[in-house]
C-alpha cells in the first residue's frame, strides 16, 4: 500500500487492511500461548503451570524491551512518513536493529549467570524452582530472537506489509505448536523442551523479518552500510516506546504481586489457577493488541499529515471493536469456565474449583480492558507520551496494586481476584474523562495540535 492511500483511502477499508491481518496474527499468537499452556499443563503437570506463572514477570522484561523498540520505532516511522520525511523514517528503521541486538545481549548475560537469584526473588522453591530455572535460562539466552521477532513486527506493518507480518506470526506460532508437541509430549523434554520450542519459533520470525528489510520488497529497504546508530534517534525511539514498555513492565510487576498474594492467601494451586486464567484470556488480549497495532500506522500517518478527522474515526473504530471483543470474551468465559479450564489440566479437581472461582470474578475486567488499551495506543501513535504513560502506569500502580493489598484483608482469596476488575473500571472513568477532552481537540483542532 502506498503512503498516499493512508491519507485518502476510507478509514473502514484501511482498518480492514491493517487491523484484520494484525488481529489474525495476534490471535494466532494468543492461540500459541494457550497451546503452550496446554502442553505444559498436560505434559508436565500442575507444577509446570506454577513454574511458568512464577517466571512470567521476568519474561515480561524481554517482551517489554521488544515493545519499547518496536512500538517506539514504528510509531516514529509512521509519523515521519505522514510528514513526507522518508529519509528520516529510513534512519529510524535502521537504528532499531543494533538496539535490539544490544538489549538482547543483556538478557542473554542474565540467562547465563543470574537466573537462580532472580527465581529466588520471585518466590520459586523446590521442584518449581528447578522447573522454572530450566525454562527461564533458555528463554533468556535466546532473547535476541524473541526481541527481534516481536519488535520488528510493527515495523513491517508500517512498511505497508500487514499481510506479510500476519503470515510470519502464523508460521512462528505453528512452528512453536509442532515443536511443543514433539519436545514436550513425544520426547519428554519437559520445561526445557517448551522453552527451546518457543525460541526456535521466534527465531523463524526474526529471520523472516530481517530478510524482508534487506530485500527489494521493502519500502524501507535496509543495507548493512545504513546501520550507524544515532544517539538522538535512539533516544527518540526509547522515548516514544516508553509507554508500551511501561505497560508490559507494569504487567510484570502486577503478575509478580499477584503470585505473592496468591501464595499468601492460597497456595501453589492458586498460582497455577492464575496461570490457567491468564492462558484463557490470552486470545482476547491478543485481539486487543492486534486491533491497536493495526490502527497505529493509520493514526500515526494521518496525525503526521494533520488529517485529524481521520484520526478520530480510526480511533473510534478501534475502541468500539475492542469493546465488542471484550463483551464477547466475557460471555464465553463466564458461561463455560469449567470446559475451558479443563483444557489445561483434567486431573486436578482442586485446580478446577479454584480456577473457576477466580475466573468468574477476574473476568469482569475483560469487557473494557481493550477500550483502555486503544486509548493508550492512540496517545502513543500521535506521540503524546505523557497521557499514554499515565494510562499504562496508573491502571496498575494507582488502582490495581493498592486494591490487591487492601481487598484480601477483608475478603481473603476472593479479594485477590477482585482487585484487577475493580481497578480496571476505576481507570476507565479516568480514561473516559481524558479522552472526551481529546475528542474535542480532534473535532475542532487548533492551528497546531501538540505533537
UniProtKB/TrEMBL annotation:
<feature type="transmembrane region" description="Helical">
    <location>
        <begin position="97"/>
        <end position="115"/>
    </location>
</feature>
<feature type="transmembrane region" description="Helical">
    <location>
        <begin position="55"/>
        <end position="77"/>
    </location>
</feature>
<keyword id="KW-0813">Transport</keyword>
<feature type="transmembrane region" description="Helical">
    <location>
        <begin position="281"/>
        <end position="301"/>
    </location>
</feature>
<comment type="similarity">
    <text>Belongs to the multi antimicrobial extrusion (MATE) (TC 2.A.66.1) family. MepA subfamily.</text>
</comment>
<keyword id="KW-1003">Cell membrane</keyword>
<feature type="transmembrane region" description="Helical">
    <location>
        <begin position="236"/>
        <end position="261"/>
    </location>
</feature>
<feature type="transmembrane region" description="Helical">
    <location>
        <begin position="196"/>
        <end position="215"/>
    </location>
</feature>
<dbReference type="GO" id="GO:0042910">
    <property type="term" value="F:xenobiotic transmembrane transporter activity"/>
</dbReference>
<feature type="transmembrane region" description="Helical">
    <location>
        <begin position="361"/>
        <end position="379"/>
    </location>
</feature>
<dbReference type="InterPro" id="IPR048279">
    <property type="entry name" value="MdtK-like"/>
</dbReference>
<feature type="transmembrane region" description="Helical">
    <location>
        <begin position="391"/>
        <end position="411"/>
    </location>
</feature>
<feature type="transmembrane region" description="Helical">
    <location>
        <begin position="18"/>
        <end position="35"/>
    </location>
</feature>
<dbReference type="InterPro" id="IPR045070">
    <property type="entry name" value="MATE_MepA-like"/>
</dbReference>
<feature type="transmembrane region" description="Helical">
    <location>
        <begin position="417"/>
        <end position="436"/>
    </location>
</feature>
<keyword id="KW-0472">Membrane</keyword>
<feature type="transmembrane region" description="Helical">
    <location>
        <begin position="135"/>
        <end position="156"/>
    </location>
</feature>
<dbReference type="Pfam" id="PF01554">
    <property type="entry name" value="MatE"/>
</dbReference>
<dbReference type="InterPro" id="IPR051327">
    <property type="entry name" value="MATE_MepA_subfamily"/>
</dbReference>
<dbReference type="GO" id="GO:0046677">
    <property type="term" value="P:response to antibiotic"/>
</dbReference>
<feature type="transmembrane region" description="Helical">
    <location>
        <begin position="168"/>
        <end position="190"/>
    </location>
</feature>
<feature type="transmembrane region" description="Helical">
    <location>
        <begin position="313"/>
        <end position="336"/>
    </location>
</feature>
<dbReference type="GO" id="GO:0015297">
    <property type="term" value="F:antiporter activity"/>
</dbReference>
<dbReference type="InterPro" id="IPR002528">
    <property type="entry name" value="MATE_fam"/>
</dbReference>
<protein>
    <recommendedName>
        <fullName>Multidrug export protein MepA</fullName>
    </recommendedName>
</protein>
<keyword id="KW-1133">Transmembrane helix</keyword>
<keyword id="KW-0812">Transmembrane</keyword>
<keyword id="KW-0046">Antibiotic resistance</keyword>
<dbReference type="GO" id="GO:0005886">
    <property type="term" value="C:plasma membrane"/>
</dbReference>
